[in-house]
TrEMBL record:
Keywords: ATP-binding, Leucine-rich repeat, Membrane, Nucleotide-binding, Receptor, Repeat, Signal, Transmembrane, Transmembrane helix. It is a single-pass type I membrane protein. Residues 1-31 form the signal peptide. Its main location: membrane. The chain crosses the membrane at residues 336-362. It comes from Xanthoceras sorbifolium. It is found in: Membrane. It comes from the Eukaryota. Pfam families: LRR_1, LRR_8. InterPro entries: Kinase-like_dom_sf (IPR011009), Leu-rich_rpt (IPR001611), Leu-rich_rpt_typical-subtyp (IPR003591), LRR_dom_sf (IPR032675), Plant_RL_S/T_kinase (IPR051716). The keyword Signal applies. This is Uncharacterized protein.
Length: 464
């Protein structure tokens, strides 16, 4: 076979390696340039340059082409032939240009296609869907544009798909969900903007998912929790918003989680504590608030992995300790519950904002002024206590209070646990106010009406 690359200059090392390669050729009976029986061609990791694809174009017998990490040039869409027996094409880290050849779809045996790190542009040709034997497709670090063609969904044997480092956009097509053999998926550093939850449900073998550096601006789909084999999940540098769904706790084998640089908010779900495999987390630069989950990964986290949030608290150097509410009348635990059952039998969970809460407080104070009768005040105090807790928590506190199995006289609860998880994080100043209101509310829940503060007293406390 005539190798046009021999006309080019390359280092002595390359010469040596080429001799070895040529020796191999002689063993497998090298054909002439008009075609023949050349099956394996490998000149990887050299300094070769020139138009290698053009010179291989007519070698239709090729089974494996490995030219990675050289300086080859050429226009892939023009110079790439049709190879009916081609199983492996490895062109990574060269200087190939032009769009991906649609001839690839005419290589029905193709199992591995790696063209990462070139200057390939244009769209991904739908014909790639015809190479149904593909199990590894690496098109990363090129200049590909447009959407992922739906036809990729036909690659039912695909294990590894790397499209990262391009300019791909739009939604990740539903059809990708049918790639049930997928183990490794890297879509990072593109411009994808939407992930359809149905995409996720079938990737039961997926252990690596990288969606970082895109434009996803939705909530994290709860279906992510179904990817139970995941060991690394990177959602960083997007616009994911709302809360982290508690379904994430189903990812028991997840080791590495990066959700930094998003617009996630609310508190971190307790479900993190069930993720026993987790060893490395990064939740920095979001809007998270509330306590850090009690797990080794969080205790071990550096402050860099937690910083830039709204109000995280916990026993970790660099974070403020969590605010707590102290309940001082714990002797009559049973009494509270009975009292609540009597005073407030039917109360559905209501989502009332802090604004409404404060309005009601004002209302109560006003009402109080109209009333002189001592007993009624006491009752109002009890009612007030339940109502405050219900408003803060977003649901009736009965369930919450009955969850206390043992109560020491001075029970300490994290403020966070008493607040409606759906509301935005309160500021530090508001937190202090909430704590004092809540402590009053708890004292109003005393089983013995005489031990409850009167509304007059409550109103004095609150107007401080
Ligand atoms: C490939 O074969 C065609 C004829 O089949 C011929 O015209 C062309 O010159 C060949 N190309 C190379 C690079 O040898
Ligand atoms: C590569 O070839 C295609 C098809 O002939 C052409 O449209 C494109 O402009 C070429 N690209 C480069 C960089 O030469
Ligand atoms: C290859 O794919 C294209 C587009 O997806 C399709 O139109 C064509 O029929 C396919 N060819 C073969 C031989 O399967
Ligand atoms: C995800 O991809 C980015 C590149 O876009 C890379 O920097 C990061 O390390 C990857 N994350 C993981 C967990 O491998
Ligand atoms: C998480 O992702 C961000 C941005 O992509 C990166 O800067 C950071 O190093 C990653 N954290 C870890 C622990 O890998
Ligand atoms: C983050 O989300 C909030 C609503 O949850 C929205 O008001 C805000 O604009 C978002 N921030 C960015 C930078 O998109
Ligand atoms: C905690 O961090 C140290 C180093 O930062 C690491 O060697 C160790 O494995 C980590 N432990 C866990 C349980 O993640
Ligand atoms: C805080 O953590 C340290 C060890 O990291 C532990 O000794 C201490 O008891 C913890 N304090 C509280 C209040 O949990």
């Amino acid at each position: 076979m005539a190798l046009p690359i021999l006309n080019k200059t390359f280092s002595p090392v390359s010469w040596f390696l080429l001799l070895i390669v040529l020796q191999q050729f002689s063993q497998i009976n090298v054909a002439s340039s008009s075609g023949g029986s050349l099956e394996y061609f490998s000149v990887r990791d050299n300094h070769f340059e020139g138009q290698i694809l053009k010179s291989l174009r007519n070698c239709t017998s090729l089974v494996r082409i490995r030219v990675e990490r050289n300086q080859f040039i050429g226009n892939m869409s023009e110079d790439f032939g049709i190879y009916p027996s081609l199983k492996l094409l490895h062109l990574c880290s060269n200087k190939f240009q032009g769009p991906i050849s649609s001839n690839l779809g005419k290589c029905p045996q193709l199992g591995t296609l790696k063209i990462a790190g070139n200057d390939i542009d244009g769209m991904i040709p739908p014909e790639i869907g015809n190479s149904t034997q593909l199990h590894e497709l690496d098109l990363s670090s090129n200049h590909l544009i447009g959407e992922i063609p739906l036809e990729l969904g036909k690659l039912s044997s695909l294990n590894r798909l790397m499209l990262n480092g391009n300019k791909l956009s739009g939604l990740v097509p539903l059809e990708l969900g049918s790639l049930t053999e997928l183990e490794y998926l890297d879509l990072s550093e593109n411009r994808f903007s939407k992930l359809v939850p149905e995409n996720l449900g079938h990737w039961l073998k997926l252990h690596y998912l990288n969606l970082s550096n895109n434009e996803f601006s939705q909530g994290i789909p709860v279906e992510l929790g179904d990817l139970v084999q995941l060991s690394a999940l990177d959602l960083s540098r997007n616009m994911f918003r709302e809360e982290v769904p508690s379904q994430i706790g189903k990812l028991e084998t997840l080791e590495k989680l990066n959700i930094s640089h998003n617009n996630l908010s609310g508190s971190l779900p307790r479900a993190f504590e069930e993720m026993h495999g987790l060893s490395c987390i990064d939740i920095s630069h979001n809007e998270f608030c509330g306590p850090i989950p009690n797990s080794q990964a969080f205790r071990n986290a550096s402050i860099e992995a937690l910083q830039g949030n709204k109000g995280l608290c916990g026993n970790i150097s660099g974070l403020q300790p969590c605010k707590t509410v102290t309940i001082t009348s714990g002797k009559h635990r049973k009494g509270w519950i009975i009292f609540i059952e009597v005073v407030f039998p039917v109360a559905g969970a209501v989502a009332i904002s802090m604004v409404v809460a404060l309005r009601i407080l004002v209302l109560f104070r006003k009402r109080k002024r109209d009333s002189d009768e001592q007993q009624r005040s006491a009752n109002n105090g009890g009612f007030f206590g339940v109502l405050v807790l219900e408003i803060f928590k977003g649901k009736h506190p009965k369930e919450f209070l009955s969850s206390f199995s043992t109560l020491s006289p001075n029970r300490i609860i994290e403020l966070h646990d008493m607040l409606d998880q759906r509301l935005p994080c309160p500021s530090l100043e508001i937190k202090d106010k909430l704590i004092s209101i809540m402590e009053v509310a708890f004292s109003c829940l005393h089983v013995n009406p005489e031990s409850r503060p009167t509304m007059q007293y409550v109103s004095q406390l609150l107007s401080k």
